[in-house]
Amino acid sequence: MVKQVSIPVYRLDFRPWENWSVDKSPDWWGAYNNVKHSRNIHFEQANLLNTITALGALYIAIFELIRVY
Known about the structure:
- It is a single chain.
- The protein is mainly α and 69 residues long.
- It has a domain at 27-69.
- Helix content is 46%, strand content 9%.
- It has 2 helices and 2 strands, in the order E-E-H-H.
- It has a two-stranded antiparallel ribbon with strand order 1-2.
- A hairpin with a 4-residue loop joins strand 1 and strand 2 (12-14).
- The protein is globular and about 40 Å long.
- The two termini are 20 Å apart.
- The model has no long low-confidence stretch (mean pLDDT 93).
């Protein structure tokens, strides 16, 4: 089951891990690595959507870690 993150104040709902598979990483992860390694070429990928999606993925990961313990 793919977890969903909601930000009701802004009417946002998204699934940061939705397009993750064995041979493909999430879009926000690719954008993060592109900006990290070639900031001058991929600067347009450093946007609010990728940032919010990455933070949503972090939220889900922390929530799942806490749930296990």
